[in-house]
Structures are given as structure tokens and as C-alpha cells.
Amino acid sequence: MWEAPRRRRGMIWGCVMNARSATGSRRTGGVAGIVFSVGMLILGFGFYFDQPLYTDSVGTIRQHFVDNADTLPVADWFGAVLFVGAFLLFATVLRTVLGAADTDETWPRLSFAGSVISVAVAGSGVFLATFALGDLADLSDSTIVAMVRADALLYTVILPFGFALFVGAASLSVLRAASFPKWVGWFGLVSALTLVIGSLWPVQDDPEGFLAILGMIGFIAAMIWVLVVGIIMTGVGRPAEQSGHE
After folding, report:
1. What is the C-alpha to C-alpha distance for residues 30 and 96, in angstroms, rounded to an integer?
2. Alpha carbons 68 and 64: distance in angstroms, whole number
3. Rounded-to-integer distance, Cα 161 and Cα 132, Å
4. d(Cα 228, Cα 127) in Å, to the nearest integer?
5. Which of 89, 100, 243 lies closest to 175 in space, CA to CA?
6. How far is Cα 6 from Cα 125, in angstroms, rounded to an integer?
7. pLDDT (0 to 100) of residue 48
8. Residue 130 DSSP class
9. Side-chain half-sphere exposure of 141, counting CA atoms within 13 A
10. Which of 31, 138, 139, 166 could staple 114 via S-S, CB 3.0–4.6 A?
11. 199 closest CA partner among 172, 162, 224, 168
């Protein structure tokens, strides 16, 4: 006669433990997002902001890599760790959070695909910076300029498309299922659109032109979006309670 109550208590306890596990995973993913966004903003403005452009003289490019021979590899590998570790963890947990509310799961899956593309592009950039540009003495002037241009295309054209897919698809899922406050979805869409438009700077062939500046604004906005979503996932905000709010 006591079997049914025991079974019910076991089911309730199992539900409680699953809920705690899901909450813990969401918080861990949120912390990863915060670490990634803050780390990328530090890297972007602390190490890469004064990176030479392919339009600079070869002497300027060589001198930059010689002067920063010790710090640049550390920054490159730190960025790789941020992408592979923190960002991929954040994207994985975010896909689960979005999928729990968005039953179609098309947009959460596309968002995760964008994160994978972003990680792959970032890894390619680290390889180029670390190995291909590692010994400038053995490279011709034209090769150095070509590699710096390739590096710029990787990080300011291809990577923004992958990241725009990640942020944009996640934001559309938010607007569909209200898994986060709707303003998060709208802000994410604007960020993604700004990234895409900014990545078209090669049309102007000016890495310091209007489109390139717009791309930098898109990068900052996307990092802020990741930071905000990460904070909400840690439990500072309550997505479930804010669902449906504009």
C-alpha cells in the first residue's frame, strides 16, 4: 500500500534533481558567455586595435610583428581558448535553452551552426597568425601583405557572417518563443544585421572606411548581446518570468 506514495516521491525527487541540473548547466553556460564577451572586448581593444592593415607599408607590418613578438602569440592563443572553451560552451547551452522553448528548433540549430563556423574561422586565423606569419624573415613583402589581407578577411568578413548567423538565428528564436525578453531578440537582430553590413567593407576596399567602422560597431553590439544573454542565463534575470514581455 506504500508503493504508490514511494513511487510518487521518487518521481518528484527525480524532477527536482533534473531541474537543478538544468539550472546549473544554464548558469555555467551563462558564465561562459560573460567570460567570452569580456575577454573578446579586452582582446579587440587591448591587443588588436592597432593591428597594421594591408594598406600599411611592409616595413610597418614587419615592425609591428617584431615589436609584439611575445604578446601577439599569447593573445592569439587566448582568443582560441575563449572561442573553443567559453564560446562553444555558451553556444551549446544556449541551444538547449532556446530549444526548450522553441519546439521547432530550426533557429536554435542554425544558431549553433553559426557558432561552429565562428570557431572554425577563429581557429584558422590563429593558425595563420601563429605559423604562417611566425617567421617574417623568410617571407617576401608580397607574401606578408597577402597574409595580412587574408587575416583581415578572415576576422572582419567571414567571421562576422558566422557570428551574425549565431546571434541572428538565436534572436529569431527568442522572438518566436519568448525564451528571453523580446528586446534581447530585437537587439540581437540589429547586431547581426550591423555585422553583415559591416563585413561588406571590401566593396569599398577601405579597411578604415564607413563599412569597416560599422563592422566594429556590430562586433561591440554582438559582444554586448552575448554578455546580456549570459547574465540572464546565470539567473540574474528570469527568462521564464519575463516571457512575453516587450
Report:
1. 12
2. 6
3. 24
4. 30
5. 243
6. 57
7. 67
8. I
9. 6
10. 166
11. 162
**What is the C-alpha separation between 153 and 210, in angstroms, rounded?**
16
Task: Decide if 74 contacts 126 (C-beta within 8 A).
Answer: no
Q: What length does the chain have?
A: 246
Per DSSP, the three-state class of 235 is: coil
* Residue 241 confidence (pLDDT) above 60: no
Q: What is the dihedral of CA 25, 31, 33, 35, to 10 degrees?
A: -150
C-alpha cell at 142: 608580397
Q: What is the CB neighbour count within 10 angstroms for residue 20?
A: 10
pLDDT bin (cut points 50, 70, 90) of residue 236 is: low
Quote the radius of gyration of the chain (alpha carbons, Å). 21
Helices (H), 68-181: 71-81, 88-101, 106-127, 141-153, 159-177
- Helices 88-101 and 3-46: crossing angle, nearest 10°? 130
Contact 156, 197 (CB under 8 A): no
Reading phi first (left if > 0) and then psi (alpha if -120 to 50, else beta), residue 126 is in alpha
Closest-CA residue to 109 (of 55, 165, 156, 176): 165
Written as one letter, the residue type at 69 is: A
Eight-state DSSP code of residue 243:
T
User: Residue 205: left if φ>0, alpha if ψ -120 to 50, beta else—which one?
Assistant: left
pLDDT at 188: 97
> Would you state the cell numbers that stand for residue 175, as one nine-digit string?
522572438
What's the rounded Cα separation, in Å, for the pair 114 and 104? 18
* Residues 64, 122, 157: CA angle, nearest 5 degrees: 80
Q: Which is it for the CA torsion 6, 11, 14, 20, positive or negative?
A: negative
At 45-59, the pLDDT tens digits run 777 666 777 777 777
